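Hi all, long-time lurker, first post. I run a small reading group and we've been trying to get comfortable going from sequence to structure in the token notation. Rather than ask abstract questions, I figured I'd post a concrete chain and ask someone more experienced to write out its structure so we can walk through it together at our next meeting. Sequence below, copied exactly:
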Amino acid sequence: MLKTNADRVVEFLLQCKPGPPRTRASWGVDHEGVPFLLPGIGGISLNVAVGDSAFGWAGDHVEPSVSCTANTNKPFEHPNRSLQLYACAGNVATLISGEAKGSTGYAIGHHGGSEHVVVEFPRETKEKMSYDDKILIRGRGQGLKLLDYPDVSVFNLDPELLQKMNIQATDGVLRVPVTAMVPAACMGSGVGSTMPGTGDYDIMTSDPETVETYGLDKIRFGDFVALMDHDNRYGRTYRQGSITIGIVVHSDCLLSGHGPGVTTLLTAGSPIIEPMLDATANIADILGHGQFVEAKADK
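-- Answer (accepted) --
Happy to help. Here is the structure in token form:
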């Protein structure tokens, strides 16, 4: 077990609610110059869940399961900003009102362009939800440290989820299971952001040959992925030899410079982190819920 300061990490109760789906004011134009009019950010997505493929949807920037906000009228202000910062992947989320009151799920990450926190609930729960329902997230994770690996920075990660990720500490290196290793050149929208504790940034998928070479089209919502030569300690930047581990929070995209969105979890400015390919490195495999897990249980 990794030694951490989990006993000193502050835990907040964060209240939010489902945010209605958003629409564009006009047609979008994809990276080939083709106009599109498709579903995108926000909403209670009944048939899109953690564990599903992030590719192939008739949509753009689709968020799985439930997109949560603290205040739909002020998406980029308090209390949405604190919800984004303090809600971490793996945090328990509980419905405290409505027909599905008492049902639980978990946060998977943040989508910066929408100021949403993405929360996974089972489909049977989502079928009973409304946009007036209240959700409490047990926000815990910011400030988490790896005591034996001080050069690895941790963001947006629940201490219990960290311990369940099957990370192997050997000879001063953390071997982290991931489903894909993303080349640095593929990181697009969000590069240069100075805040790794909120939002996400995108894996560009506009080059079919690169997508096929690195198996990027196999990425699923909730996958742990390695962003090669990317350093997120003080912002999202290229640095040779750096490694960032993140979690996939939204779908592939049609817009230029965009693709599956990744929220930062672990990052180091030197090769202390060694990603190891593992097709099951997904939060749904660890915590359950989602159609992918339900399908496995039926076999």
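A couple of things your group might point at:
Residues 152-285 form a domain with the tm1086 (SG structure) fold fold (CATH 2.102.30.10).
The first strand starts at residue 11 and ends at 18.
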